[in-house]
Amino acid sequence: LIVEYGFAKRLLNTKRSLALFLMAEVDISILSMVPREYFHPKPKVNSSLIRLNRKKSRISHKDKQKYNYFVMKWVNKEYKKIF
Fold it and tell me: Where is S-adenosyl-L-methionine annotated to bind (predicted)?
């Protein structure tokens, strides 16, 4: 999957709720950087080629609901305090 480079870095940042949600379900890795010069018209940002490998869930459905609640309540709360 090709995404904006900054977004790819945010997917790996465990202080962000999106990363925590995804990491519970998939392994995320940045395979390579794709320079903006490779596109036409040239965008303002660089891109990254990322891989998302689905992994077997280790969390039960009930616990996953609790996990999602925790992430939404506490991780987002801390993020809003910073900014």
Answer: 1
Domains of the chain, CATH where assigned:
2-82 (3.40.50.150)
Question: What's CA 4's distance to the chain center, in Å?
Answer: 12
pTM of the model: 0.74
11 burial (CB, 10 Å; 0-12 / 13-18 / 19+) is buried
The Cα–Cα gap between 55 and 75 comes to 23
Whether residue 11 is annotated as binding a ligand: the answer is: no
**Distance between CA atoms of 50 and 33, rounded to whole angstroms?**
9
Backbone φ and ψ for 6, nearest 5 degrees, come out as: -60, -40
